[in-house]
Amino acid sequence: MSILTVSHFNTFPHGGAAMAALRTHANLIQQGVESRYYWFHDDRKGSHGPNVNQVKLESPKTTFLKSLFGRKKQRQQQKEIYRLFNTHLQDRDPTSETFSMARLPEPGAIPAHASNVDVVHLHWISFFADYPSFFGSIPQDVPIVWTLHDMNPFTGGCHYSGGCDRFKSGCGSCPQIVSPGPQDVSVDSINAKRDALQGREVHVTAPSQWMLDLAKQSPVWPAGTTFTKIHLGFDLETFFPVDRTVARQELGIESDAVLVAFGADDLNSNRKGFHHLLAALKQLKTDCKVQCLVFGGGEIPNDPELPPIHHLGFIDAADRQRLAYCASDLVVVPSREDNQPQVGLEAMACGVPVIAFDAGGIPEYVRDGETGSLVALGDEASLAKKISGLCDLESFRTRLGKAALAMVQKEFELSKQTQLYHDLYRSVARTAAARAA
Questions:
Q1: Same structural domain for residues 222 and 357?
Q2: Which of 172, 313, 319, 430 lies at a 20 to 30 A Cα distance from 201?
């Protein structure tokens, strides 16, 4: 059997989606797949591993006559894209949830060496892919596997809809933009996505059933699109239990208090819910000495009503993340809307119990009373009560942590997840080859 060739595309070589994709990529290489990972933009320095390269997008190929007559059309399209951006996005509140357009001012084609493969695997491609030119450069006979890290691939631009279901009927009057209307930027983007994917062979995967069920309701997917749930996989040689005292010493935390942890890329993200945790911490009723450990970018309010907070800043090194989890007694994931947040699973892989809001795909792994504890969305008083209870009950924390670790080992181990992708690649590549024969 010939060696499979797979090209992964992700906007960045860092961040949650990138880390999940890179873990899969590296494990595929170990399984004998010729896997390549391409990123478009990097604002940090560092080594990214084997077969991980920046992709240089090219101008779409065209004939001289088409080029001649197409220049005016392209200028008109650019003018319209800038108009949509200036009207609906330029003056958005900078703390708002991410919103990205499907059409970009500059078209960009994937070079042939990156797209002429058995399977193209897409991850998080916002601010990277101009849908018309990006998908137009993927050969028509190459199947596309697309892992959903958020909702953006099937909406008119939002990455999380906040409960809005207008994407099901083609968007318009978008609540997340400035000056919404029946023909706003959300309509332009969802139409561009649908047109770009028309006639393509697309296989959608998502780590949560919640995300998958939402995706199925969008009109962007071409006929015959398949939908498969595949968990994000974790390398249990990277995330594993470490003695709590040792972890605290390594981090320079001199405390015997119960440490309640929270982590996110951006502490100011309303969706990630750090503000809910801060409100809950003011309402704790426990006999234990409680402190908080936080990692992520952003400022923490100086509030005398809050317990002492150890802020580690933004960390993306896995070994330091592991220490942060293992130094903690419990981790709180108060996301208002989320797919399969990795903070919770990484904590569980370190044997640490998780308290979370009952939102998005979180309940699929935080199983109340079994592997963690769930709280009704936004209920800060109940969150405080749950945190207080786990602070007081060390034996219960230990039991939940052990059960959580066992679940991750059984259901989220990286090689098992990678094998599911390997099997999917083989299946779709075989079908594509038979169709071409």
A1: no
A2: 172
Residue type, 147: T
pLDDT of 68: 56
Sign for the CA dihedral angle at 28, 29, 31, 34 comes to: positive
Sign for the CA dihedral angle at 428, 433, 434, 435 comes to: positive
Q: How far is CA 69 from the centre of its chain?
A: 40
**Same structural domain for residues 189 and 296?**
no
Residue 155, both tokens: 């909406």
CATH number at residue 269: 3.40.50.2000
CA torsion sign for 268, 269, 274, 279 is positive
Tens digits of residue pLDDT in 247-282: 999 999 999 999 999 999 999 999 999 999 999 999
Q: Spell out the residues 6+ positions from residue 432 whose beta carbon is closer than 8 angstroms to its own.
A: 118, 141, 142, 143, 201
pLDDT per residue over 303-319, tens digit each? 999 999 999 999 988 89
Residue 239 lies in a domain: no
Is 150 domain-assigned? yes
205 and 269 belong to one structural domain: no
Domain boundaries, position 61:
5-233+414-436
> What CA–CA distances, in Å, run from 355 to 271, 330, 352, 378, 405?
16, 7, 10, 13, 15
Share of the chain above pLDDT 90, in %: 86
- pLDDT confidence of residue 49: 80
Q: Mean of the pLDDT values across residues 275-302?
A: 95
CA dihedral sign of residues 9, 14, 15, 18: positive
288 in the same domain as 158: no
Model confidence, pTM: 0.94
347 inside domain: yes
**Total number of domains constituting the chain:** 2
